[in-house]
Amino acid sequence: MQLIVRRKLRDYDAWRKVVSEMDGIRQKHGSRGATVYRNAKDPNDVVMVFEWDDQKRYTDYFDLPEVQKALAQTGTTEIFEVKESFHLEQ
To answer: How far apart are CA 32 and CA 15, in angstroms?
Structure first.
């Protein structure tokens, strides 16, 4: 399943370090990776598109105390579960 996470960060560089340290934990909870998009006009605004095994595994990950602490310390978070996606041709 796809998951879109939008973060309004306090400090991009500090967040980048924290999010990289969580790679193994995300993988253990079913994350297949993500693409991160950084806003050109606001460098502390990022959108991540994750691939997860299933809903339970990603919610278990986001409910972990260390993940909740990291999210709270680094900024605000919006999470969107993707119901449908499609590609627009040029």
So the answer is: 20
Predicted local confidence at residue 90, as pLDDT: 85
Buried residues in 63-88 as b, exposed as e (16+ CB within 10 A): eeeebeebbeebbeeeeeeeeeeeee
pLDDT in tens, 2-42: 999 999 999 999 999 999 999 999 999 999 999 999 999 99
Q: Which domains does the chain have, with CATH numbers?
A: 2-81 (3.30.70.100)
Bridge-partner residues for 76, per DSSP?
A: 8
Closest CA to 38 of 8, 2, 78: 8
H or E stretch covering 32: strand 31-38
